[in-house]
Design a protein that fits this description.
The complex is a heterodimer of chains A (302) and B (299).
Chain A (H helix, E strand, L loop, with lengths): L1 H34 L20 H7 L13 H29 L5 H8 L1 H4 L2 H11 L7 H8 L15 H26 L4 H9 L4 H30 L2 H6 L9 H10 L4 H27 L6
Helix pairs in contact in A: 1-13, 2-13, 3-8, 3-10, 8-10, 10-13, 12-13
Chain B lengths: L1 H44 L3 H4 L14 H7 L9 H32 L5 H11 L4 H19 L7 H26 L2 H9 L4 H12 L1 H17 L2 H6 L8 H9 L6 H21 L1 H11 L4
Helix pairs in contact in B: 1-13, 3-13, 4-7, 4-10, 7-10, 8-9, 12-13
The chains are: A mainly alpha (302), B mainly alpha (299).
Chain lengths: 302, 299
């Protein structure tokens, strides 16, 4: 009976397991191999006979101007990636928290607002990225340029996404705009589970809104905020589409995923691309270890 | 005494209004910054190329002009883009991905939620961890690997929508599995036990009892996987080469990067791509929100 059940279970789960491990886990391991070999377009179809080059790909990456840190004027993809992921994650969470607090109080039109708040998250990245580029158009006819010029805040149009520094800031704002709904939903779910007697007791004690937020709400959210932080950090760190579509990785916004793509599919140096991906992955594993250790451990085992 | 009480009430009223003012202001800020880009997408799609090129942006189009949509769909248009084909390609990828992901996830999730076997938690956890692997890490070896297999078995890796579906399955199955597992766990085991005792086979139990109860979850998972496949950019960019095989995101990227770009056409194509997901989402909002937080859909 027990054996039959085990057999049935493996039979049922095997298609999923084969697809996921075959198309994710195996390629991930294979990627290590590729990163130590010279793989280009010419031998892509015969990849197992690619010449072994040791750490050459890694040397190339570390010495690439697009990768290495060369002072404040040029951060390189590694530092940019880390700064971008951390700052974007924190801002996304703050915006998500504010949105959740807004929607946690009853008002007319709350359901509709809540649905609207989710639009940026469900809309296709290609559409929203191109609308943003169009709004930030460097010509005077760009919406942001027009508005700022009408308000006399600027006198000449700005090429927002083609200005070092500003481009990174805007990419981060775009991330916050697009991904705050995820944080908002998680926080909102937690907020609605907070025992209301805690607030009633605080009212009796004469606590003001700020004190209640600081002493009740935040501690209650502590765990969910940690989980959101790590998840968003990892996803932002992995993110390719957003920056690729907004700036193509130019003007101080080059991050490791975009650099991996450029090495692999612009220069067709797959070995170097894989080496970049491995560096990305090693940093990610550090984040992941935190995630497994702090978050997954707390998820109750049945 | 009376005066101080009155002061206190005045103060309280002032504070309440102040907080309400902040609230209204913040809400307005959120709603405008969310909705304006979508308004701008829609409004720009109904502008002519001349309006797009004016010195100042045209905030309210003078008339609904269909020029941009003509370029996308009208074969007689000199800049005809044949976008209909791209819509079909996107559907050809997203619908099978959603259907297959739901079916395979039903089997897998049922096994994990209901059956007892060794290594179950390890399996579920590894699938979830694997889900955190970045797409750019996988794309190079995946490409090389599929090229090898393709050369042996005899299929093309590039411009092959089936290959794309396969890679999308690998991306969506973990979350589908996770969401369905959680849902199956909420259905009491006793209902199934009763069915088994009544002499139904395991498959009859799944088919007649568990699945009908799980329909909301199945719909959610189906829509999610559909949306992931519909919106996906990186894999499609790498695996698709010829314009008549492009899915919508890649086509829109191509139109945007054309030597003489027509932003109104980009916005029209984006509108067409956005409307179905937003409508699907609004229609199914109740179900989907739960799924969003439970599954933590990767974004």
């Amino acid at each position: 009976m027990q054996a039959a059940e085990t057999r049935l279970a493996w039979f049922l789960i095997s298609p999923t397991a084969i697809i996921v491990f075959g198309l994710v886990l195996f390629p991930a391991i294979f990627s290590i191999w590729v990163s130590f070999h010279r793989v280009g377009l010419n031998n892509l179809n015969d990849v197992f006979h690619a010449p072994f080059v040791g750490l050459a790909n890694y040397y190339k990456v570390f010495n690439d101007f697009a990768f290495k840190f060369q002072g404040m004027r040029s951060w390189g993809a590694a530092v940019t990636s880390i700064v971008y992921s951390f700052v974007a994650t924190i801002i996304t969470m703050i915006v998500g928290l504010i949105a959740a607090l807004l929607l946690n109080r009853p008002f007319r039109g709350r359901g509709l607002s809540r649905a609207t708040f989710l639009f940026p998250y469900v809309a296709p990245v290609v559409s929203v990225a191109f609308v943003w580029r169009w709004l930030l158009d460097p010509r005077p006819s760009g919406v942001l340029n027009d508005v700022l010029m009408r308000l006399n805040l600027i006198h000449l149009p700005i090429a927002y996404l083609a200005t070092r520094g500003l481009a990174l800031v805007l990419v981060i704002i775009f991330e916050a705009w697009r991904y705050f709904p995820f944080a908002m939903l998680m926080i909102l779910a937690r907020l609605q589970a907070i025992d209301s007697t805690l607030y009633e007791a605080a009212d009796v004690d004469g606590a003001n809104t700020w004190a209640k937020f600081w002493n009740i709400t935040l501690p209650e959210l502590h765990y969910v905020l940690g989980a959101i932080f790590l998840l968003r950090l990892m996803w932002t760190f992995n993110k390719f589409d957003d920056i690729f579509l907004l700036t193509g990785g130019g003007f101080g916004t080059n991050v490791l995923p975009v650099l991996t793509y450029q090495f692999s599919f612009r220069l067709f140096d797959f070995g170097r691309g894989a080496a970049t991906a491995m560096i990305l992955f090693l940093i990610l594993v550090t984040f992941m270890a935190f995630y497994v250790f702090f978050v997954m451990r707390n998820v109750e085992e049945e | 005494m009376n005066g101080s009480k009155r002061n206190y009430i005045d103060h309280l009223a002032g504070w309440l209004n102040w907080s309400r003012f902040i609230f209204a202001l913040t809400l307005t800020f959120f709603l405008t910054s969310i909705l304006f880009p979508f308004y701008w997408m829609l409004a720009s799609s109904f502008k002519s190329f001349a309006e797009i090129g004016e010195r100042h942006p045209v905030y309210v189009p003078h008339a609904l002009r269909w020029d941009a949509y003509g370029e996308l769909f009208n074969p007689a248009d000199p800049r005809f883009q044949d976008f209909g084909r791209n819509i079909i390609n996107s559907l050809k990828v997203a619908v099978p991905t959603a259907l297959i992901a739901v079916i395979l996830a039903i089997f897998g999730a049922y096994a994990i939620a209901r059956l007892h076997f060794k290594g179950k938690n390890l399996l579920l956890n590894s699938i979830l961890i694997v889900y955190l692997f970045p797409g750019v890490l996988l794309i190079i070896p995946l490409f090389a690997m599929l090229a090898q297999i393709g050369a042996k078995v005899g299929f093309e890796v590039q411009d092959n929508l089936e290959v794309l579906i396969l890679t999308y399955l690998a991306q969506t199955l973990p979350v589908a599995l996770y969401m369905l597992t959680n849902y199956f766990r909420t259905i009491p085991d006793e209902i199934e036990q009763a069915g088994l005792i009544d002499g139904c086979s395991r498959f009859e139990v799944i088919w007649r009892i568990t699945l009908p109860l799980a329909i909301p979850a199945l719909v959610t998972v189906g829509i999610y996987t559909f949306m992931i496949a519909w919106n996906e950019f990186l894999y499609a960019l790498v695996f698709l080469n010829s314009p008549n095989m492009f899915t919508m995101p890649i086509k829109i990227n191509t139109i945007y990067n054309a030597p003489s770009p027509h932003p109104n056409v980009v916005m029209a194509a984006s509108t067409i791509m956005t409307i179905p997901v937003v409508l699907l989402f609004l229609g199914m909002e109740r179900f989907l929100e739960e799924g969003l937080t439970a599954g933590g859909v990767k974004g």
